[in-house]
Amino acid sequence: MQISVTRDIFPLAQVFTISRGSRSEAQVLTVTVSGGGAVGRGECVPYARYGETLDSVTDQIMALAPLFAAGGEIDLAAHLPAGAARNAIDCALWDWRAKAAGKRVWDLLDLPAPGPEITAYTLSLDTPEAMQAQAAKHAFRPLLKIKLGTPDDMPRLEAVRAGAPKSTIIVDANEGWSADVYADLAPHLVRLGVTLVEQPLPAGDDDALIGMARPVPVCADESCHDRASLAGLKGKYDVVNIKLDKTGGLTEALALKSAALAEGYGVMVGCMVGSSLAMAPATLVAQGVAVTDLDGPLLLAEDRAAPLNFDSEGVHPPTPALWG
């Protein structure tokens, strides 16, 4: 078998801002594996928050080229940590297996055929006025996710609720709040009908959540990567956010979902800002979860060929032309 990696850039429909900064494009890596007349693809989004760059992840991927050339099964977890590189390879391999077998990935995994799932649509961090305008524009959507993470977020919360009075709202602070800010905001989250708060405190300082009142369920994002993370979440979080770029691919994402549910956590399936190819495997993990947040393609000005279908039923599973 052969493996290759290319860099792809997808312009965003508008500047996307979170508490850590802004971007106007999604820079992704596309992995292609081929052999036996079949070709599979996977996508990852290297993330600086986790010490990843396009160059470092490319190097991780291509370091496995000799193993692919030698043939045989490769234990990815033995060679790569959970993260973007392993994700792209793992998803490309699942696509390759499906193409080689002439079956869908869910059949290979002995999973029920997936259906559409309602997905959140994300409003990026901005002025209250701009966020209210964005909320009003997307008020037809049943689930809105708003990026916050500053000490003065109350006007933004009020503005979004005014702009979209009927939408369910979830909040993502991206580690931007202190314990005091979160404690002050919590009653207002309830008042404004917020149903979930993602990562209110920095991952390294989230022990402050132990014993703190959580009137709205709190979701671990940066604090949860794979199954090894679960032990450190007890008493702090109610929900875990599963992203394939954190877990290291579909294989671990499905295992994390099962383990998290068994331990009593709710499950959210999220994404980095990437194309439909990155979201496609995650649609399998998203089946039946509490919250699906796979809106990456909706934020792009351009997407892959044969993109995922988004409609009033939500995000649909991929066609074979895209993945799996």
User: What is the mean pLDDT?
Assistant: 96
- Reading the helices and strands in chain order gives EEEHHHHHEHEHEHEEEHHEHHEEE
Largest sheet: 8 strands, parallel
> What is the CA–CA distance across the termini?
18 Å
Taking pLDDT < 50 over at least 5 consecutive residues as the criterion, the unreliable ranges are: none
Q: Judging from the principal axes of the Cα atoms, what is the shape? A: globular
Number of strands: 13
> Count of DSSP helices?
12
Structural class: alpha/beta
Question: In what order do the strands lie side by side in the largest sheet?
Answer: 4-5-6-7-8-9-10-11
Measured as a percent range, the helix fraction is: 25-40%
Give the amount of beta strand, in percent.
15-25%
Radius of gyration: 19 Å
Structural write-up:
With 324 residues, the protein is α/β, with parallel strands linked by helices. The chain is built from twelve helices and 13 strands. The strands form three sheets. It has an eight-stranded parallel beta sheet. The longest helix has 18 residues, at 84-101. The two termini are 18 Å apart.
Tags for this model:
324 residues, alpha/beta, eight-stranded parallel beta sheet, three-stranded antiparallel beta sheet, 12 helices, 13 strands, 31% helix
